[in-house]
Every structure is written in structure tokens, then in C-alpha cells.
What does this fold into?
Amino acid sequence: MKRREFLHYTGLGLGAGLLSQIPIIGKAVPLEAPWYTIDVAKKKELADVALNAARSKGATYTDVRIGRYLNQFVITREDKVENVVNTESYGIGIRVLANGSWGFASTDQMDKDSIARAAATAVAIARENARLLTTPVQLAPQKGYGEVSWKTPIEKNAFDVPVKEKADLLLSVSDAAMKGGADYVGSFMFLVNEQKYFASSDGSYIDQDVHRIWPTFQITKIDKATGKFETRNALSSPRGMGYEYLIPRESDKIHGVTTLYRDRYDMLEDARQAGTQVGEKLKAKSVEPGKYDLVLDPSHLWLTIHESVGHPTELDRVLGYEANFAGTSFLTLDKWESKKFQFGSPLVNIVADKTQPGSLGAVGYDDEGVATQKWDLIKNGVLVNYQAIRDQAHIIGLKQSQGCCYSQSWSDVQFQRMANVSLQPGTAPLTPAELIKNVERGIFIAGDGSFSIDQQRYNFQFGGQLFYEIKNGQIVGMLKDVAYQSNTQEFWNSCKAIADKRDYRLGGSFFDGKGQPSQVSAVSHGSATARFNGVNVINTARKI
Amino acid sequence: MPILTKEAAQALLKKVLAYSKADECEVSIYSGDSGNVRYARNEVSTSGANSKSMLVVSSAFGKKLGTATINEFDDASLEKVVRRAEELARLAPENPEYMPILGPQQYGEGSGGYNKDTAAIDPAYRADAVAQSLTITKQNKLVAAGFLENTVASSAMMNSKGLFAYNSSTEINFSITVRSEDGTGSGYASKAYNNVKKLDAAKETSIAAQKASGSKGAKAIEPGKYTVILEPAASIVLIEQLVNNLDARSAEEGRSFLSKAGGKTKLGDKLMDDQVTIYSDPWHPDMPTSPYNNDGRPQEKITWIEKGVVKNMYYSRYWAQKDNVKAIPGPDAFIMEGGTASLEELIKSTEKGILVTRLWYIRPVDPQTLLFTGLTRDGTFYIENGVIKHPVKNFRFNESPVIMLNNVEALGIPERAVSGESNSSAILPPMKLRDFTFTSLSDAI
It folds into this structure.
């Protein structure tokens, strides 16, 4: 079901501006539902039904994903709780190889007959498509792990926290922002629990329990005399954590022109400063277009990394599988084969890592039963690797998959999705303040804003939340109407300084979209504050 | 669950309502079957079949509302979902903006969006369509990446005040990007219909193939303000953003392009060229949509922009009551009027300009001016003295649909198009527009 359809038929979209970005599929459970999981022995029994049925119909490989996905949304607007929604989705997806071709079918009818029928349908689809095949699927070998399990290392299960506590926090956020001068505040908390069971004809039975959390808000202030308005979004980041993310710790705060957050988020404090800053944004100087040295905070830079490094290093894009929708990639195989394509300056080291604690993409095993790992994408500025899954590994000479296959739900087919892709901090001691000291004419940007990049990931444009003018090594005031445009390779080669590991932080998104039918994936990107010299800044102010 | 007839939906919803103990209860059902096939590098990559249904129950005690959904339909599950909705309602804080449910409404007859041939599509049909498409690209030494998806769906709602609404629909959606083998040319075509017989996958592939071959060797020209001809697949992604932002509450609260100082709005103001008229009509024969919206209000033919003047905004029932105006729901799709010229005639009448096949990665930059950024893609050509002279490299634009629709030179014959961003359909013409703002060049092909 498409997101628009779901919102249409349930009315969940009513009055929930921020919620309208969120795809929701599933059936609701009571607010204070007792926490439970499906018995692993039951899941194994059902998975074996699918594996056996597919084999009996002629599948040469089968994998089965049984998923129970829970979401919770708490949504507030100013002093009102607009909605509290719990959804639950439970079903099975079966992927097969038959006659060298992929087939997939899913069902939410969890009886053995329905599962066997779905397996047969998947084989029938594979056979139908095999007549259009010129190259049979070549699957990298994968050992079976037997019965194993993995769980996000959370300290406090957010689903166990009473709804009232969450609603009270969001209402306090509204109150703090309004007292700071905001006219409107929308906020929500979005919690995810993916209970995933994977089984394959390789002999793996993998049980995983994945948790994610995203608390956020948007504040608006209006100048009633002129009719102008500005917004300021939360500087939080969605994380692969439990509710402990919302229990602030002073040691996780980075104080400066605005306070920024490492592994714990002080939502109330951020709302207070946002309430003030949105007023400052209204009065800020409109930027003079031209070349600036940009100092980019991790709360902003994660999105630039995502778009300009994460996506073009996905091997399916390089090969053309996304050509009709998300596009291809300028990082063609010849650039990788040359082993000397200077993607960025020698300071630039970028890794893919599906094991990173606290990240959105952290799992023990991917959705085709491969143990997750960490590997280099860009080493000392040079392109050294891609992100690949089992049916692509042979193309770049890998003996096994890099373990970055994912599906948003049991009902969708899994395919190559981005690992956590992160810029490594500088090796020499350097703080953001020291970094700014060396900037003569620049802009410090915090928070993510507008983002757009072409279908081969060359030309991009990014906005942000907070723009501070730097003159002669000092922050001198706030700017507005700022966006920067660049070419990916030029941009990363203009990277002249990266703060050290003390400043390393994770940003990320719940909603990385890709594929047809389109699916979303949650992914994190880490970095320390970094400086990019001579980047083109445009002024986005217009009149209508 | 199979797609429900009107009678079957009515019987099911009546049974669910019988379990209700709430002050007010509203139930709705959605069920849909879809199939898809995706191809790239001139062969099938993934495909699947998907069947989903959902029963939604909203229960209210006073102004306390709870909603629960389920996809199991035995009696015990039906009662369970009603009890869950009631439990949620009891736990929920009172919402001062809660509006009592509607009584019976008058809807027009079914809008004709269901087609039995489309409902009968099977994997063999999809594979045959892809085979036709691939024959063309392989013969022309080009590389295809495409997607074909068919859906059949039904929806219905009923409430404890006697409201009942039903709709069924089918759709087939096809899109294709054809690239030259050396990766220096790319073309695109897309179509969506309710009736599968209207789709000609081979014809669309040929259009994309022609653009791919014609776009090889693109030349760079300086970014700046240009006269552009936007094909419907390009303009839809900007016009849909305009239609999506016609909300009355945002406008009156001061946070919309329709806001004016002091809580006033631009309703009744002329914001665009005389040639711009945009409306919605659930009964349009080429793009039928649901006769009711999600809270049971009847959908009607509504004119949103008439000769450049903002004629209507859409309202929630709460906000309409506050304003004491009619609660017009937002549209499911839109139709923009056009002219009589073909695309070829628009090109012929252009001294200097850029023909744009597709716009991509559209993101808001400034809600105050409805400024968006994005890029051209898959076939961008320079026009001089009425003919296409050569392909040009792609551009990034920063433009507002409001400014753009003030700069209309001419409109062509409207046709149904699909948004490459939202996957939604609309009917709109090719547009010839002056002073479209390109801000930088892209090396992407």
C-alpha cells in the first residue's frame, strides 16, 4: 500500500504536518500493549514450511523473512496531543531463485497453507521472468550460521516508557519553544522495533530485535507586521538506541553558538534555544552570494555525506539497476579499477559500517543472512570500494557479500541499501573552534535543510538550519537565505580540515528512499566538523 | 482478502459497527492486490506480488478519539479491533479540535476508476509487456531500465451515524528510462491509466529510445533565465507542489505562500497568468478518483485556480467550522487546462528555448515563496528558430511554481502524466514558460 493511500484511508494524516513524511503500514495495538515477541521456535517452524515448499517447487535457493514490525507515534501541536498511534505488522516474505531468476511473494496469512502457497507463487514468478533472462543470477556463497540472534544494545526500551511520559516531554518542548518566542510548534516522537527472523536454504536461522528512535520538532515564528516567517527544526538525530537517547548528559553536549549533541539529546534545551534562534533568523542578514569557506557541523554534514558519498558508492546504482528512478552513479567501475580516482582530498577517509553501535543501520546480519562488517570506501581521498550484496559481489571480485541488503518490511523484496557511511575524524588534534579560527570569510552551518542532487550524484545543493557568518576567524552573526551548490568531486577535494575524534557525531535519516516500488531505509552518517574551502553559496530569497 | 464488492463491504462494516460501544464509531476498509516487474540492464531484476488489506476503526468518547487497525477478518479479530480502538480512546487526551462524525452524505455515482481487464493482469502479462519493451531497446543497441506495476483496490467506510461510502479502482503504471550503451544519452517516458488497454509499453519505450539516441553529445550552455518547454512529466512535479500547498489553515496562520501580513490570505488574489486554471474532478473520464475523502466528505469538482486567481483553498472540518465556511477537502488529483497546440507546435513557435523531458529531486527551499530546487534529466534539448538544434547538459533550477505560472507563453494540449517524485497522476498540458531560472550545470546524464 502506498503511504498516501494509507493516510487517506485511515485519516492519520489529518493535521499532522510532520507525520505526513512518514510511511506507516500495519495494524494498531493498544497503547500500553504488553511487550511480547513471537516465539522463535514458532518462527522456525513457519520458515521451514516456506523453505520446504519452495524447494519442492524447484527453487535452487530460498530465503524467508518473518517480520513483526512495531511503530509508535506520539504527535503534538502547540499545547495539544494530536494523536497517539501504535501500529503492528506481521507477515512473511519469501524470495527464491528458480531457473536462474529471482521471484518474490509475501503474505500476512500466517497459516502453513498460505505460506506454502506464497512460496509456490514466488517460484512461479521466477519461472515467468526467467524467459527474459540473459544472465542467470550469480549468488555469492554464504555459510549457514545455524540458530543465532542479535539485539540492538538498548538501555531502556522506548515502547515500555508510558505514553504519558512521552506526551508530557513533547508538550514541555512546545511550552519551552513558545516561551522562547515561537508562534507554532509541531513535534513528534517516532519509535521503531523490527523483530526480524531470517532463514535460508544455506542453513541460517537468524533472530534479530532492532530498535530505533527519532524525537524531533519544527518551530515557526512569524513577523506579523511583514508577514515573513522562518522555521527552525530540531538538531536531534534519529538513532539506533532506546529511550536513553532522551536522557540528557552534560558530557554529551558541545557548547558553542548553539549547543549540539553527541549520543544523548536534550530535547527541552534544544527547543528553548530554537525558540530564540527562530526569532534571530527572522532578523538575520540575507547572505551575499559568492565563494565561502564552509565549516560544516556533523548535524549538517551527515546529509551531504549521504547524498554525495553514500549513494554513488552503491554498486547497484553504478551498474544501472536504479537508472529508471534514483539514477546511476558517476563512480563508474573504471574509476574504481584505476585505483587512483581522487574522490576527495587526502584528508578524506570514508568507511561503510553496519556494525557501528548507536547507528540506525546497525544489525548483526543483513536481510540475506550475511554477518555485517566495516570496510573502506574512500581511502586517503581515493575511491577503493563500493557497497555490494550477494548477487553483485562477483562483479567487483569479492568472494562474499558486504552484508548491506535490506527490506523495509516482510512484504517487500530485499535489495542493496546503504550501510552507515561515515567520514573519519582527523588524526591531528583539532577542535571546531580552532578550525574556525583559520577561516577568513566563511559560514558555519548546523542542522540539515533542503537537499537535492542529480541522478549521477555530481551537482548538489544543500540548505541547513542555522547559518553563522565567519569573519577573520570569528563568528559575527546569523545569516539567512543560504544554500550552497557544488560538484561532488570538487567539493570533497576542497576539504581542508577535519576536527578530531572528540567531535565525532552521528546524524542520519529514517527515510532513505530507493527502489521500485519505493522503499525506505534508516541509515546513519558520522563525521567531525569539517572545513571546505571556496564553495559557491547562492541567495535563495525570492519575491512572489 | 479478495477485493470487496460494495455489498460485501457494506456487510462487513455493518458487522464491525455492531461491536461498538463508543459514543461515535467510524470504520473503513481498504484492500488491494498489486503485482510488479522491474527491469534494468535489459533484463528483469526483481518482481513480486503483494496482497494487503486493512480495517481501520476509530472510536470516540466525547472528544477522546482512538484508532486501531487490523488485517484479520474473523469475528474474534473484528471484535478485538473495536475493543482496542475504544481502549485507545479512553487513554487518549481530549482533543479540543475533535469534530463529531458526519451523518449520511450524498455521493455521486462510482467514478468509473475500476476496469476488469486491468484487474485481471497476471505475471505473464507483465513479462510480455517487458519483452516488447526489451525488443525495441536491444534492436537499437540501447539499454532499458523500467518498472511496470498494476493495482486493483477497493475502499469503503461506514459510521454509527449512518454514513456509507464505497469506491473501487484499478491502475497500471509504467515508466522507462532508456540509455545509450556508452552512457552518454538518456531518455524517459511514463504513463498511468485505469484501463490497461490504453497502455502501449512499446510506444513509450520508443519515445524514450528516441530521446536517448538524440541526447548523446550534449553541449554545455550557460545557466541563467531561459524560455523552457516543460513536457507534462516535467511540469507535474512542480504543479503538484502548488496544489499540495493550498491549505487554508497554514495560509491563515501565516506560514504559507498564500499568507499575507495580519492573518489575511491571498484567496481571491490574482497570482498567476490568465491562462492558468487548475481544478479537480473525481469524475474526469481520463482520471477518475475517489468520490469521498478520508473523513467521509463528498469530493466534488472544485476550481482551485481560475484564470490565475486563487478561487479556493482546502479546509479540515475543524478549521472550516472555525471560519464558518464550507469544509472543502483537498483533492486526490488535479487537472490543469491547456490550449490546442501540440508539443511539436510549441517547439515550432520557439525562437530560443530549452525542451525539458523530466525534472528530478524536487525539494522545497523556501515555503514563503514556494521556491523549489531540482534538476533536468533524461532528455534536455536546445531549441532555436523552431527546431531542436542539439542536446544540452542538464541544469539545476531554483524556481517557484507561482513565479513560473506567471510567465506562461503558451500551453499545449493537456494529457495524463505521472509524477516521477510522488507517483501521482494529473492531467496537464505541455507548457512554454519564459524566464525559468537555471542556476548551475550538471554533468549527469
Residues 6-212 of chain B form a domain with the PmbA/TldD fold fold (CATH 3.30.2290.10). Chain B touches chain A through 111 residues (CB under 8 Å). Chain B has ten helices and 21 strands.
